[in-house]
């Protein structure tokens, strides 16, 4: 089987990959790409870690310092 997936394809299929919503051939191609592409594998692992942290924090009441909140809001506005 030829692995003709590009990095962008992996990004586009990431949610389906993580939710096991892909056919077995596409799943295998993505697995092969991740095994051969350290940047995509790092992105996948970072995404998984962020998702896990977000799930853990969802049920907790976390209060962040007002200065950090303001800096974060400013950063997000500038990125949009």
Task: Outline the structure in words.
The structure is a single chain. Helix 2 packs across helix 3. The protein has helices at 7-18, 24-36, 38-58, 66-79. The protein has one domain (7-79). It has four helices and no strands. By secondary structure, the protein is mainly α.
Shape, please? elongated
Number of helical stretches of at least 4 residues: 4
Number of domains: 1
Q: Which structural class do the helices and strands define?
A: mainly alpha
Beta-strand proportion? under 5%
Q: The biggest beta sheet, please?
A: none
Helix percentage range: over 70%
* Poorly predicted spans: none
Head-to-tail CA distance between termini: 40 Å
Number of E strands:
0
**Helix-strand pattern:** HHHH
Q: Give average pLDDT, whole number.
A: 88
Rg over alpha carbons: 17 Å
List keywords for this structure.
mainly alpha; 80 residues; 75% helix; 4 helices; elongated; single chain; 0% strand
Layout of strands and helices, then pairs:
Blueprint: H1 7-18, H2 24-36, H3 38-58, H4 66-79
Helix pairs in contact: 2-3
Can you summarize this structure?
By secondary structure, the protein is mostly helical. It is built from 4 helices and no strands. Helix 2 packs across helix 3.
